Amino acid sequence: MLKTLISLLLILSITTYAKDATMNTIYDFTVKTIDGKETTLEDYKGKVLLIVNVASKCGYTPQYDGLEALYQKYKDKGLVVLGFPCNQFGSQEPGTEAEIQNFCRVNFGVTFPMFSKINVNGADTHPLYVYLKSEKPGVLGSEAIKWNFTKFLVGKEGKVVERFGSSTKPSELEEKIEKLLNS
Fold first, then answer.
1. Across residues 90-108, what is the average pLDDT?
2. What is the value of pTM for the model shown?
3. Is 15 a domain residue?
4. Domain count of the chain?
5. Angle of CA points 117, 122, 127, to nearest 5°
């Protein structure tokens, strides 16, 4: 009897969670631009998105070049790269939003949209990242972001298509991006 009750509660819990997760789309989330303006991702409806947690003092920081190259090559076809600075990994994004924005523009010519610093793990995880991680868990089903420059590819309908680790170079995503842009 107890096993049956526990099983029913588990099923109910999973069903409720699945229902709640499907009620949201990527466009429902409120974010703050790097200039401090509240907005939603609704502005990017119908676009292919590459959402990345970024940092200025990381071994992967040179990926800004590749992210900007992808953005420049495909922005007119519907790709938008969205950068979310995060200071949770080795304190590699210690600066203010103004310092981050200046660093990205001066050192890497970044023109893609950047947002205010957020947490991608832990109790203060930004709701966008709660959603992204639940939609596409990482290796062995782990939802935690392992390091800076984890990438989420989102299709035109706002569904998370794939997750890529830090070591995946932006150029390695071109074929997948082209496929989504042409679908």
1. 94
2. 0.86
3. no
4. 1
5. 60
